[in-house]
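DM between two lab members

TW: hey, do you still have the DUF1491 family protein entry open?
JB: yeah, one sec
JB: this one, 53 aa:
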Amino acid sequence: MTGARKWMEPVAGEERDVDAAIAKQRGFDPDLWVVEVEDRQGRHLLDEPGLAD
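TW: and the structure you got?
JB:
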């Protein structure tokens, strides 16, 4: 446990599929954080300095 952030995209696609995957994950990880990013160019920017540290 380093305290470092771990950004990952475990599932992508239709909203209902993503919602189902989040519900499943939340079943065994009650501290799950979900960040929804809407960008016209499809970027998430999570690898930018300050967010990737």
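TW: got it. DSSP finds one helix and no strands in the chain. The radius of gyration is 13 Å.
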